[in-house]
Every structure is written in structure tokens, then in C-alpha cells.
Design a protein that fits this description.
The complex is a heterodimer of chains A (about 325) and B (about 750).
Chain A: E1 17-19, E2 26-28, E3 48-54, H1 63-68, H2 75-83, E4 90-94, H3 107-120, E5 125-128, H4 133-146, E6 153-157, H5 162-172, E7 176-180, H6 185-197, E8 205-208, H7 218-233, E9 245-246, H8 248-252, H9 256-259, H10 271-289, E10 293-296, H11 299-312
Parallel strand pairs in A: 3-4, 3-10, 4-5, 5-6, 6-7, 7-8, 9-10
Antiparallel strand pairs in A: 1-2
Chain B: H1 5-11, H2 25-34, H3 47-57, E1 63-66, E2 69-72, E3 89-95, H4 100-112, E4 114-117, E5 120-123, E6 126-130, H5 136-147, E7 153-156, H6 160-170, E8 174-179, H7 184-194, E9 197-200, H8 205-217, E10 223-226, H9 232-247, E11 258-261, H10 262-265, H11 270-282, E12 287-290, H12 295-308, E13 322-325, E14 334-338, H13 341-354, E15 358-363, H14 370-375, H15 381-391, H16 393-396, E16 401-404, H17 412-418, E17 423-426, H18 434-439, H19 443-459, H20 470-476, E18 501-507, H21 512-520, H22 523-535, E19 540-544, H23 552-566, E20 572-575, H24 579-587, E21 597-602, H25 608-615, E22 619-623, H26 633-649, E23 657-660, H27 666-669, H28 673-685, E24 689-690, H29 706-720, E25 724-727, H30 732-744
Parallel strand pairs in B: 3-6, 3-12, 6-7, 7-8, 8-9, 9-10, 10-11, 11-12, 14-15, 14-16, 16-17, 18-19, 18-25, 19-20, 20-21, 21-22, 22-23, 23-24
Antiparallel strand pairs in B: 1-2, 4-5, 13-15
Classes of the chains: A alpha/beta (about 325), B alpha/beta (about 750).
């Protein structure tokens, strides 16, 4: 009568995608079980952590975070410091400053930053744009060429610009390509099919399926994660077997829990601790849902999530 | 769990006595399995067979109650499959190894986190009392202290004497988390005697399983499982295996709620506990024990929990009230939107980004988005006025600028009439445009114009408003109908025929051209769409005049007369949130080609439409939902039965209630499509008629794909017994499929040119 649990390993498998080059290169994906279900089958590649390096980092106003990056002025400084964080598997160059409706930094400036960083860091690089479709297409095209040979992941091609971005990033320069959709499993699948139609190798694609900060409509993100992973593993749907990257930092640092001052919300306590907690909780939820990589801002979040992953895999 | 007909048949008397009304036992069992007949209709099932069947139909996971809290009762592994039922609760741990000051501080701190978020109280529901000294007096003292908080307790205690001492002072709302493979008999006796829930823990999952079996054999099923392992990894394995075994392997031995103790597996690391708690919220903990619960931890964790435990079938609503943004006060302008949580978050976020003080007024719209709520009559000038009165907005805010969503610009006049002291301004179409709109004060010009208009009106003599009777309205407000030859003749309809009934959906106020034509009483665009639909073979035409708050009755009378006089009394479905308008429409309706259809009643706030249909001898479409989409067919059928009963009690014929299962969009609710099809079969098996907005299934799909999806679905539905659908008759592929199905169903005699008929 003794109990033996049934195993839940699947025949479907998540693609294993390599980022970066040399001995610091990382592999994300590759598993045939639900996230952290090591009791079903071993998980070969633990989920990876990226540290955000933003071109607007100088505007960050969090005492502990600013202290950590004290003395950094250029993106290279920030990147070197970020790379040194224990638990950082890759760095993520984020270019919100390129937004034409914001700072509108020129493509040339951004590319120069990325190039300078790529010359000094050894860990893999992921690039995130400014979310403006045209500007991102321009930015990615120029950057993919400038960073040739570095095996960089660009986040992301979207439904509206995937032809330009897919052609320059993946086809012309052999870099890794992100495919971004917003909490919509049908669209996520469709975009992957379109990229395949463009001759982009599905094994060089990483998905951003859209997330949210916990508490902010996260149920859509949670169910999209669950449904995509079940389709990839249980139904063996090859068009959804790409690994997933969740840009957690983009979702959590702007919500009220992270930004409200201690004067406005005296009961809530330390503002920076709240922001770290939002980032940690959202990252843990994303990883539980199926993220194979998360991008975080705060060194304290990185430390906690690193421990979380290490303990569970 | 649904039992299959054959499983029931195996236990049936197999005598084919027909007392149940079915020709054979097999037929009866099949009907029981479908839920069409109650098992009790058969008097000959043995006691033993009934007991087996009852235990087989019992829930796979028990619901355990502790005071007012419910734990467990889950039916699915993933929230998209159905819905998660009982949210996970939190406990903060105190232990006998802590000094008194630490304990006092902890008990005080855990009560500090107590706030409301979207209508839900967020606080630490339990105190967990841990025992590591095995001194009954010490443990009882700590328990007494914890009980003084008034919160229910989780007594984690494996020592029988300590447990006994603690139970004596703990009160009734307690989980005695103390049974192990070694002590279970003694602990079981204690818990049973005290009438409290017993928690079970073991070194490994196999021993846990055996211990539960032992306890169940002693008759105790009031259990929770402490699945905490030595590490977080082991704990996750336990939590998943327990839940999976219960729900997937359908082994009820593990069908109990779980406790996860993070104070043990991540001792001393609050942030790591936050990370783990996030994981266990998604993966199967019913009670999560933490060392602390600060606001920094609570804000994300309770937010996540609220999201994960949202019913995916029901929209998340925020409270209707005034939300001051960026320090807004009584002199700040007002923005209005609906109570759909996502809309609220989006709009409030964008308003915050504007940096300007604004009062965001959330009005009750049943949790629908702006346009959906407007089309359903849930966002109207009356609902807004009601909100303004309930919230006492006029006295709370002095500024009189009211910005409404650009998507419902059409409501401006009506809102202005209902809120005469306000300056109503139409805001931008999309929320992302708000920061610029507010920052640049783009609303000021509109507000000035509205104010000037109001001043001009105030000067004019107020017209006496008196509600006119339908006859008076007909005589004074309904323009004469001009009959135009559109070259199309309506072919007639025989209500006795079994042929599929198509209700043409093209005359709908959501189409700007129709909205404009209705506003201006311009016949041409309406006649054009009607002619095309009749030519394409529509049986009925749906007439949606929009919410039509102000002039609904004369609008509907005009539309009905216009269509019937021009097209040989084509039968119509009258579709609006204004009930008086439907009544007015029926008043002028000609029944030559069939009764009018009232579109539509539901089992919730629109139940009165059945009464309206009954009073006017009309057909009524009865939507099988109340507040949001029915969560399963059990709920659909409950709504169906309720509405059927109401209609019949009002003297309607069951043929005049057309049940709508509510067709769901494939992009988003793909896994629910078969359920809708099964619901149609259930209607059909009850001998009921059915209809619905079938093309909703393909919403958002590419234009060239939609006809293929729609026609495939209609064929599947007709196989299940669907008798009518609200469709676009201009979709040729769809209409040809329907005609072909009518051939196969032997509703129409075949001829080579049946498609041309």
C-alpha cells in the first residue's frame, strides 16, 4: 500500500538556447518538465538571472541601489559593476532612453554604448529596446551588426516589426531573437510561426510572453505561462517550445508599492525594501510559471532569486 | 468528478423495468451520467451501489473549515482550467524558543498588516505556535498568548502532553498540526475529542500517505497535510505530488489542504520566504507559515494571491468611488471610467503619470470594459447618475469638469442632461493619451464650451417633460414610414417548421453607420442592411437600437415599422437594454411571420425580460449566465432551469424560451468550446430550443478564417441540436453550411438546387 508518486515528465521539450560566447556562455531551456519539477525529471539548465543596465540608470533614486553603483557614470561602468554581482548570469542592456517620446537618444549613441560594454564584459548580453516599434527596429538593426559574433539576444521582435527585426537580428547577423507578445497565447504562437516563415531558426528564438507586477492583473500572466508551458510540453507544440525570458524589472519598479514615498504611506515602511520585495515576488512567480530567465534590477533581488533557484533545482 | 454512464450501469439492477421512464437500464444510466436525470428516479439501486456511487461522485479534495476560513476544495491543477476556490491563507510563527519580548513583538507586528485591496481584507489569518521545548506548561502559556490575538491557531506540536495542554487554552478555531507516523493514534484521539482539524506530517511522502490512510480508517477525515520537507525543493515536490495525486490520479487519500512552513525551510531570510511564498501561492499551499509578515512582504504576496484566486470567468471589479490621484482635492477636475479592474489600473496609472491632481471617479459597470458595458446598458447616464448620487460627488467635489472616456463620446449629451451642473467633456480614446491630455489641460476648452451651453440652456424656458403613452408617441414622435422598393421580398416563415432559424445580426448600434442612422431616423442605411440580410436568407432580423435611454420607445417603434412595412412583415428580434422600448416595439409589431423575439434575458439582472416576453406573448432569448460567464455546465443548467421555471410559471410555452449557452471566443477560451457544445446537447435533450451569438467564437480571427470557423462550429452545434443562431447571413459559407445541415437533419427535402432555395 506504500505510495509511489506518478512522474509527470513529458515527451515535449523546451528548446535549449545558448547566449553569449566562451566559458561564460549560458544555456536557457532544455527541460521536459514543469518549472522546478525536479521530482519528475532532472532540470539540466537552471533558470538564469540577468542584471538590468539601463541607459537611464543615473535617474535611479534608491539609496542602497545608488550606493552600490556609486561612482558609475557610463553604461560601461554600470555594466562592469552589474557583471560583478554574484548570481548574475548575464547582463541586460536596457535602452528606455532611446524612446522618441522621452530622451530620444540617438541610435548611434546607443550603439556606441552597447559596443563599449561588449568590449569589456565577458558575460552574455541581452539587449532591450525602448518599446517604440520604429526606433527599436532601427536600434536593433544597427546594434546587431555592431555586436556581431557576440551571440547577443535582442528583446524583441513584435507582431508589427518582426520582419525588419527578424531579418537584421537573426538572419543577417546570426544573433538570438526575442519574440514579444502581451499575455496572449494565440498571438505568441502566431508570431513564432511568422518568424519561422521568415526563415528564422526556431532554436534561436526566446519568447517574452508579457508579464505584470504581482497584484496588477498578474492572473493573465500566470495563466499565459501555464498554458504555454502545457502546450509546449503536454501537447508537444513545437511553435511554443521556445524558452521564456521575463523582464521583471520593467514591470515592478514603476508600481505604487515600489514608488510611494514613506511620507505618503507611513505604515508601509522602507520604500526600497518594498521595491525589492515586489521584484522578488514577481520574479519568483514568473519562474514558477515557466520563465527560463528573469531580468532584475536590484543586487538584493539577484541574491535572493539566485538562492531561490539554487535551492530548487 | 463526472462518472461515465457505463460505470453507473455496472452497478445498476439491469432489469430494464422501465419504472424510471427509460426503455433500458443502460439508457437510464447514460442520462444520469449526463446529468439529465436524477439517480433517485430508479428505486432499485442497492444501498451498496448507492454508497459506491456517492463516494465516487464526492469531491476529490475536501474542504476543511477552521472558524470562518475554508481551506482546500480545489478541483483543478491550473487556474485556467476552471477556477481556484479557496485562496491560500497566511500564518506567522511564534515558538517556545523565543523570549517573551520577541513573542510579544511578533504578535503585535502581525496584527499591524491589515488593509483592504479591491474589496478584500488583507491580514495574517492564522498564528502558528511552534513547540520545541516539550514542556506542556511553557507551550500552553505561549498558546494562550497567541490565542489572545483572536486569530485561529496552527499548533505545531508532536508531543501529546504539550498538545493536550495547549488545546485546553487554544479555543475552538485550531488546527492541531501534530500527527506523525509515530503518534497518530494519540493525536487523533486528542483532535477528535477537541473537535479540531488534525494536521499530519511525516518524514517522507510515503509515510504521510500511510498515516492518512490510518487516520481515515479510524474515521477522521477532518485533516490537513503538513507537506513541509527538509528543504524548499522537497516541500515543493510534496505539495505538487499531494495535489496531483488527489486531482489527477483521483486518489482521495491525498485530497486534503496543505500547510507549508517557510519559517522552517528558509529560516532567517524574509526575502527568500517572500520568493517561496509566491511560488507556493501558485503551487498548492493552503496555509503558508512565515516568520514575519511586514508590509513589504504583504503588498506583493496578497496582490499575487488576489490575482491567482480571481475567478477567470468573472471580471475583477474595483470599488465604485472617488480615487484622488496625485493629491487631488475638491478643486481638481474629474475623470470617469468603469469598475473593470484592468481599466482602473490602466487609467489610474496613466493619470498618475500626468503628474496632475485629478479625481478618478469609478462608476459601477458590472466589471465590464467601457464599450462592452455601454453596449450592455451597464454604463449609461442613469448608472452614472446613480453612482454620483451614491458617492455624493457633487458635495465632495467643487470642480465641475467631468471627463468621460472618448469611446463613449455618444453619451455626452445624455450625461449632460442627467448631471446638469457638470461640464461634460469627451476625453481621449485611449488611456495612453491621458498624460498629455491632462498635462496640457486639453479638457479646458471643452469644459468652457459645455459651461457656455449650459448657461444658454438655463436661459431658455424649461420644457415640461411628461412621459407620453405609446399611442401618443406613435402619433407625435415616430416619423411616417415611406415604403421603398429594395427589390427584395421576404419569403415568409413557418414557426412550426424545424428548419434552423437564422437571426441576422447586422442592424446593430455598435456599427457607427447604424448608430448614426438610428439617431437621425435615416432609413437608407438600415434598409440597405436589412435587404442584404433578407436576400441572403435570414429568418429573423435583430434590431439593436443601442442603450437608447432617452428616446428608446419611439426609436424602436420607428425601426420596427420601418423594417416590417418595407419587407413584408419580416419577423424581428428586439434588442436593447431599454425595456420600455421593447414593449413599444412589440406594440406596433405585426405577427404574420412569427412572434417577436425579446433579446435578451439572463439569469441575473435581466431576468425581468422573461416577464416582459411573457406579458407580451413574445419569444425570449434566455442567456444562461448571471454575473459573468457560467463556470461550468452545472451552472449553465441551473440558470436554464431557473429561467425555464420562471417562464412556465408566467404561462409561457417552453418553445418560446430560446436558451443561449453564451458562445465563447476561441482566442482566449479555446478549452471551453466543447463545454458549450455539450450545453447545447443538454438543452436539446430537455426538448428545449436554443440560439446564441455564434460568431463570437471567431472574434479577433483573420477575416478570411472567420467564415470557416463559424460554419464549422454551426455544423457541430446543429449536430448537438442547436435550433437557431444570431449570425451574419451575408456569410455565404455559413449559410450554405446551415442549409446543408438542414438537409442531413431531414428538416428540408433534398433537391439538387437546395442551396438556391
Amino acid at each position: 500500500m506504500s505510495f509511489t508518486p506518478k512522474t509527470g515528465a513529458f515527451s515535449g521539450k523546451i528548446n535549449a538556447v545558448t547566449l553569449g560566447t566562451g566559458d561564460k556562455a549560458i544555456v536557457i531551456g532544455g527541460q521536459n518538465v514543469l518549472p522546478f519539477y525536479t521530482f519528475d525529471a532532472p532540470i539540466e539548465n537552471a533558470p538564469k538571472i540577468g542584471v538590468e543596465v539601463s541607459d537611464l540608470a543615473a535617474q535611479w533614486n534608491w539609496p542602497e541601489l545608488s550606493a552600490f553603483y556609486a561612482g558609475c557614470t557610463t553604461m560601461v561602468d554600470y555594466a562592469k559593476k552589474a557583471e560583478s554581482i554574484e548570481g548574475a548570469d548575464f547582463i541586460c542592456l536596457n535602452f528606455p532612453g532611446a524612446d522618441p517620446n522621452g530622451e530620444d537618444r540617438s541610435v548611434a549613441d546607443c550603439v556606441a554604448d552597447a559596443k563599449a560594454v561588449a568590449e569589456v564584459v565577458t558575460k552574455p548580453i541581452v539587449v532591450m529596446g525602448c518599446k517604440n516599434l520604429e526606433k527599436d527596429a532601427e536600434l536593433f538593426t544597427a546594434m546587431a551588426e555592431a555586436l556581431a559574433g557576440k551571440n547577443v539576444l535582442f528583446m524583441s521582435a513584435k507582431n508589427e516589426n518582426y520582419k525588419t527585426v527578424g531579418a537584421s537580428v537573426a538572419l543577417a547577423n546570426g544573433q538570438k531573437l526575442g519574440a514579444e507578445t502581451a499575455d496572449d497565447i494565440n498571438l505568441a504562437k502566431q508570431l513564432n510561426i511568422m518568424l519561422k516563415g521568415l526563415n528564422v531558426n526556431p532554436e534561436s528564438v526566446v519568447m517574452d510572453i508579457g508579464t505584470a507586477a504581482v497584484g496588477y492583473g498578474y492572473e493573465y500572466a500566470a495563466s499565459t505561462f501555464d498554458r504555454i508551458r502545457l502546450a509546449a510540453l503536454a501537447q508537444g507544440d513545437a511553435d511554443l517550445q521556445m524558452p521564456i525570458l521575463a523582464a521583471v524589472c520593467n514591470d515592478t519598479w514603476g508600481v505604487k508599492e515600489s514608488t510611494a514615498s514613506e511620507e505618503d504611506e507611513p505604515a508601509w515602511g522602507c520604500r526600497e525594501e518594498r521595491a525589492i520585495s515586489m521584484e522578488v515576488s514577481t520574479a519568483a512567480a514568473d519562474l514558477t510559471g515557466g520563465a527560463d530567465a528573469v531580468v532584475l534590477r536590484h543586487p538584493a533581488s539577484v541574491a535572493t532569486i539566485k538562492k531561490f533557484i539554487t535551492e530548487l533545482v | 468528478m463526472a462518472l461515465k454512464g457505463l460505470d453507473i450501469f455496472k452497478l445498476s439492477p439491469k432489469t430494464n423495468c422501465k419504472e424510471c421512464g427509460c426503455p433500458t437500464c443502460m439508457a437510464f444510466c447514460m442520462k444520469v451520467a449526463q446529468g439529465a436525470v436524477e439517480l433517485s428516479k430508479c428505486p432499485h439501486f442497492s444501498e451498496e451501489a448507492l454508497a459506491t456511487l456517492n463516494s465516487a461522485t464526492a469531491p476529490l479534495m475536501k474542504t476543511v473549515s477552521v472558524g470562518e476560513h475554508k481551506l482546500g476544495g480545489e478541483t483543478v491543477l491550473f487556474r485556467h482550467e476552471k477556477t481556484l476556490v479557496n485562496k491560500n491563507l497566511y500564518a506567522v510563527s511564534v515558538c517556545t524558543c523565543m523570549d517573551e519580548a520577541t513573542v510579544d513583538a511578533k504578535l503585535a507586528d502581525l496584527q499591524k498588516v491589515d488593509y483592504e485591496r479591491i474589496g478584500e481584507r488583507m491580514y495574517v489569518e492564522f498564528v502558528q505556535v511552534s513547540n520545541c521545548q516539550n514542556d506542556p506548561a511553557v507551550y500552553a502559556k505561549l498558546t494562550e498568548k497567541a490565542a489572545a490575538t483572536g486569530r485561529p491557531l496552527v499548533l505545531e506540536c508532536w508531543d501529546v502532553e504539550c498538545a493536550k495542554a495547549a488545546l485546553a487554552v487554544a479555543g475552538k478555531n485550531v488546527i492541531l498540526d501534530g500527527a506523525t507516523p509515530e503518534n497518530w493514534e494519540a493525536m487523533n484521539a486528542l483532535a477528535t475529542e477537541a473537535g479540531v482539524v488534525l494536521g499530519v506530517w511525516a518524514e517522507n511522502i510515503s509515510d504521510l500517505y500511510d498515516t492518512v490512510k490510518n487516520l481515515e480508517a479510524k474515521g477522521n477525515k477532518n485533516l490537513v497535510l503538513d507537506v513541509t520537507g527538509k528543504t524548499a525543493k522537497e516541500t515543493l515536490a510534496n505539495a505538487v505530488n499531494v495535489r496531483r495525486t488527489a486531482l489527477k490520479q483521483e486518489d482521495r487519500t491525498f485530497g486534503y489542504p496543505s500547510i507549508v512552513n517557510l519559517a522552517k525551510v528558509a529560516k532567517g531570510d524574509d526575502r527568500l520566504q517572500t520568493a517561496y511564498a509566491s511560488m507556493f501561492t501558485e503551487k498548492y499551499a493552503s496555509i503558508i507559515v512565515m516568520e514575519n509578515m511586514t508590509y513589504a512582504q504583504a503588498l506583493p504576496l496578497y496582490g499575487l494571491r488576489q490575482n491567482i484566486y480571481t475567478d477567470p470567468q468573472k471580471p475583477m471589479k474595483v470599488e465604485a468611488k472617488i480615487y484622488p490621484i496625485n493629491g487631488a482635492d475638491e478643486n481638481s477636475p474629474c475623470c470617469l471610467t468603469v469598475d473593470f479592474a484592468l481599466t482602473y489600473f490602466l487609467v489610474s496609472g496613466e493619470l498618475e503619470r500626468s503628474g496632475q491632481p485629478v479625481n478618478l471617479i469609478i462608476t459601477d459597470a458590472s466589471g465590464m470594459s467601457v464599450l462592452t458595458a455601454w453596449a450592455a446598458g451597464k454604463l449609461s447616464s442613469s448608472t452614472i447618475k446613480k453612482t454620483f448620487e451614491e458617492l455624493d460627488v457633487a458635495n465632495k467635489i467643487k470642480n465641475r469638469t467631468l471627463i468621460i472616456p472618448g469611446k463613449v463620446a455618444v453619451m455626452k449629451g445624455e450625461i449632460q442632461d442627467k448631471l446638469p451642473e457638470w461640464n461634460v467633456v469627451v476625453g481621449p480614446l485611449e488611456a495612453v493619451q491621458l498624460p498629455k491630455y491632462i498635462k496640457d489641460k486639453e479638457y479646458e476648452a471643452g469644459a468652457k464650451a459645455a459651461e457656455a451651453e449650459r448657461a444658454a440652456k438655463a436661459g431658455a424656458v424649461k420644457e415640461e417633460v411628461k412621459e407620453l403613452s405609446f399611442d401618443e408617441l406613435l402619433a407625435t414622435k415616430v416619423p411616417a414610414i415611406e415604403v421603398v422598393d429594395m427589390g427584395v421580398k421576404y419569403g415568409g416563415y413557418n414557426p412550426e417548421s424545424k428548419t434552423f432559424v437564422t437571426i441576422g445580426e447586422r442592424i446593430h448600434c455598435i456599427a457607427p453607420a447604424i448608430r448614426k442612422a438610428m439617431d437621425e431616423r435615416d432609413p437608407a442605411p438600415i434598409l440597405e442592411r436589412a435587404a442584404a440580410q433578407i436576400k441572403a436568407g435570414a429568418t429573423y432580423l435583430d434590431v439593436n437600437i443601442g442603450p437608447a435611454e432617452k428616446d428608446g420607445p419611439e426609436r424602436m417603434m420607428w425601426a420596427v415599422k420601418l423594417l416590417q412595412e418595407n419587407f413584408d412583415n419580416v419577423p424581428l428580434a428586439l434588442d436593447t437594454a431599454n425595456m420600455r422600448a421593447i414593449e413599444a416595439g412589440i406594440k406596433v409589431y405585426n405577427r404574420t411571420n412569427g412572434k417577436p423575439i425579446v433579446n435578451s434575458a439572463d439569469a441575473g439582472s435581466r431576468i425581468g425580460y422573461i416577464d416582459l416576453a411573457a406579458a407580451n406573448d413574445a419569444i425570449c432569448i434566455a442567456l444562461c449566465s448571471a454575473d459573468g460567464i457560467a463556470k461550468d455546465n452545472e451552472e449553465r443548467m441551473m440558470h436554464c432551469d431557473n429561467m425555464l421555471e420562471r417562464g412556465l410559471s408566467l404561462g409561457m410555452s417552453s418553445d418560446d424560451l430560446w436558451f443561449d449557452p453564451l458562445f465563447l471566443v476561441v482566442k482566449g477560451m479555446q478549452d471551453k468550446q466543447m463545454e458549450v457544445l455539450e450545453a447545447i446537447k443538454m438543452f436539446s435533450d430537455k426538448g428545449l430550443k436554443s440560439t446564441g451569438g455564434l460568431s463570437n467564437n471567431s472574434n479577433g480571427a483573420p477575416k478570411e478564417v472567420r467564415p470557416i470557423m463559424d460554419s464549422t462550429l454551426v455544423a457541430m452545434c446543429m449536430m448537438q441540436g442547436l435550433t437557431s443562431a444570431i449570425v451574419n447571413p451575408n456569410d455565404r459559407r455559413l449559410m450554405e453550411t446551415i442549409k446543408s445541415c438542414d438537409i442531413f437533419k431531414n428538416h428540408v427535402l433534398y433537391s439538387d438546387s437546395y442551396l438556391d432555395l
